[in-house]
Each structure stands twice: as structure tokens, then as C-alpha cells.
Amino acid sequence: MSNVLVFAETRGGEPRKVAFEALTAARQLVDSSGGGEVHALLAGAPGIGAKASLLGTYGADVVLVAESVDLSTFARESIAATIADRAKTGNYRAIVIGFSSQGRDLGPRVAALLDIPIATDVTSIAVSGDSLTVKHPAYANKVIMTLVVAGPQAVVSIRPSAFTAVETPKAARVENVAAVAASGPTVIIVEVKEGAKGRPDLGDASIIISGGRGLKSADNFKLVEDLADAFGNAAVGATRAVTDDGWRPHSDQIGQTGRQVSPQLYVAVGISGAIQHLAGMRTSKTIVAINKDKEAPIFKVADYGIVGDVLEIVPALTAAVREARKGH
Ligand SMILES: Cc1cc2nc3c(=O)[nH]c(=O)nc-3n(C[C@H](O)[C@H](O)[C@H](O)COP(=O)(O)OP(=O)(O)OC[C@H]3O[C@@H](n4cnc5c(N)ncnc54)[C@H](O)[C@@H]3O)c2cc1C
User: What is the pTM of this model?
Assistant: First the structure.
């Protein structure tokens, strides 16, 4: 097949996990359909090009570097215009973008600029003949739709963590490209407020410890924080019941109306497992649930379940994790 163009998402000048996942998806698509090249577009402040070789590690044949002071923050209109401009050349069958906050913004812009279809929140992509076929979960993951995307070119926006990033090292050729200025009104970012310092973003974390109303109070979230610390580099999430009660910020909410995550390990602490919560975490690789009610729905999706009081189990688990990780 022809080539695939990937938007290599960055934050703070570093490529994000979803960028490596998008490259992996593109690589698999190209390699399984008769060959072609994977091109990654890396856009950011001057100096961002230093990260090009990292994209080669995850399968980019070519890294297109667009450096500009105007791209120092997420300049959505300009980045979309730069992607669209490039997509008109280079024989690209698909443009792969993460279905992250940035990607949810960029994908439709690119599709509109090019007047091509877009498939969002995609968990698998395949080419058969001339057709691009994708899978798209819907109704809180209750159904998986198979969609055939019409036309010779499409934007495909992949669900974070649905594709596991795989290293397929290439000595990527680096090409500088000009950032295309936005035409029309632009969003100006006036302030960026950082979330919890020292913890990975929920979308990037390979381990998430998540708490629910079973913790009884905001203060008891300290137990969740301690368990996350014991693992070394875990993120902390929460249910909507907890964020609505103000125990945690809304940015921590996981579920249908919160963040969708798929870490290697998800520990659900005092969470009932309402369908809206499951919609955001049920694709996690390994799920551990701690709940005093053995009939709690969370146990239906859990790989490991502990029936007991979180106020007793979590400190014991934290001590056990610390012991097991001694020296790490
Ligand atoms: C339109 C809509 C969208 C929604 N979106 C979301 C969403 O995005 N994310 C989300 O999470 N929810 C969402 N909800 C809310 C959802 O329906 C549930 O109300 C919520 O997930 C419940 O949170 P919880 O599990 O913390 O609390 P509860 O349902 O109250 O469960 C608490 C659990 O803790 C257990 N427990 C209690 N005490 C202890 C103890 N000492 N030790 C161990 N276990 C204990 C209980 O057995 C129970 O299972 C949405 C709802 C609607 C209607």
C-alpha cells in the first residue's frame, strides 16, 4: 500500500506514549498491506527535531520536523494546517493521530481541511484490497463497530493504549518542513495549569491506582496515594462519585464522562464497577479490585479480586509492594 502519515504528539518537548502507539499502528498497517513508508510529523518549538531518532525507534522511516516559536504551545490550527498540507503530497493512504485531548481537537480539523472521512476512537485498523477497515467501540464499550472507511484517504484517530507501542528501529531520515500558518481565528493558550506534580498523566501511566466512595473520605485517599508511591511511578484516578463530592479534581475522573485509560495494571479501590466507570477502564491489561461486597460488579471484570475492607487491605498491600520492590 501507500504511505501513512503519523502526528507525533508531544508534551513539554517530549514525544508522548500515544505517539509511539500511533507509529506502531501505522507500521503494522504498512507492513501488513504490501509495504510503504511511515512518516512522522514532529511539530514544536525550535529544538524539537532532537527527538526525531526516538520516533525512528518506533518505526518511522521519515521524520518531518516543523520547528517554530509559534508551535511552542499546542497551536492546533497551525499544526492541523501543517498536517493537511503535508498530507496532500507523499501518497498517504491514512493519517494516524492519537485520540487524546490534542488528537480529538486535531483530527476533525485535518479531516475538514482535506475534506476526507475520519474514524475516531479506533482500536484496530486493517487494509483489505482498497478498503480501510477499523474497529470502533460504542455505547460504553458494549458494542464494537466494524467500519469501512470510504475514499482513498482518511484520518484515523486511535484510542490511547489500544495499540501497544513496539520498538521496530529504523534509521529515520529527517526532513525539515515549514510550519503552515493558520488562516482564520486561532485559540490562544493564556495559561497551562499542571496537574499533580511527579505523577504520570493518566493516559501515559502503565499503573493506575483508582479510588471510589468505598474509601469513605477524601483524607483516606492518602492510602491510594501511598500505594501509587509504593509502585514508584503510578497515576491516581477516581470515580465520578468521588470527583463530584470534591474529594479529587475532575481531571482524575475515569469513565464514560471522564478519561479513558488502558494501563498494564489498574487497581480499583472501593469502586462498585458501575457501567459508566467500566467504560473508561475495562480494557486495562490486568485489573485488581478491592471491595467489601463480593457481589460488586467490578469483580466481573477483575482478573484478581480481594474481598475486604479497603482501610485494612490497602495499607497491607502497600507494605507488600514496598517489600517486593526493595532495592528498585
Ligand atoms: C451519565 C452518567 C455518566 C457517568 N459517568 C461516570 C464516569 O465517567 N465515571 C464514573 O466513575 N462514574 C460515572 N457515573 C457514575 C456511576 O454511575 C457511579 O455512580 C459511580 O461510578 C460510582 O462510584 P463509586 O464506585 O466510587 O461509588 P459506589 O457506587 O457508591 O460504590 C462504592 C463501593 O465501595 C464499596 N465499599 C464501601 N465501603 C468499603 C470498604 N470499607 N472497603 C471496601 N469496599 C467498600 C461498596 O461495596 C461499593 O461497591 C456516571 C453516571 C451517569 C448517570
Answer: 0.81
